[in-house]
Specification:
Layout lengths: L1 H52 L12 H4 L3 E5 L1 E2 L4 E7 L2 E11 L4 E10 L14 E8 L22 H7 L5 E8 L22 H31 L1
Parallel strand pairs: 5-7
Antiparallel strand pairs: 1-6, 2-4, 3-4, 4-5, 6-7
Helix pairs in contact: 1-4
Amino acid sequence: MTHNRHERRPGWGTAALLLISAVMVVTFVLLGNWQMRRLFWKLDLIETVEARAFGDEQPLPARFDADDHVYLRVSFDGTPLPQHILVKAVTELGPGYWVMQPYATDPGLLWVNRGFVPSAKKTSEQWATAPQHITGLIRPSAHQGTLLERNDPAANRWVARDTSQMSQALGLDASLPYFVDADHLAPLGASPRGGLTIVQFRNSHLSYALTWYAMAVLFLGALIWIALRYRKLLDS
């Protein structure tokens, strides 16, 4: 009896490997298909956002909808308030700060990112006068920071453009849930340096899909190999 049980064990083990391999093949194919759907969604999103960012200027939306208004090119008139907040930034020009300034506009209090200033030019006396007419791109309000670095209003240390938190820190009315990255509106070479928004989306869905499909092919090969061995075992 011990000898018969010993001969049956490889068959059960092989059947289990067949089942596991088949499940893995189906799983990897489904994951690859999901990534392909994400790829087409991302391509549509990129096309839509590029059309907004490089299209005709629009007025400020009466009601903000992230799906429809992120990176929308807008043009508006407003009254710049005297306050400002410097938000830590690293750009193609090097490390420094974004100059965030609140504006009174028809839809409400709106924060405007006037542009980048290096650390050597972080005092307002070194900047061009804030314009009343702004053109730029709508960006959604950011969170308070990351796990490694967060806004600290008490210390006047800012790493994220959180419009609500900035308004609270300056004792202002509630602000709109977005800000505007302004184009470079100052004279050439003057600070702040606007127009540095990078309209770019990471799109790795195709490589992910190909990886999942490759895994499916590998497990399919293993499935075929195990099935042939299983058949040979049954015929023996």
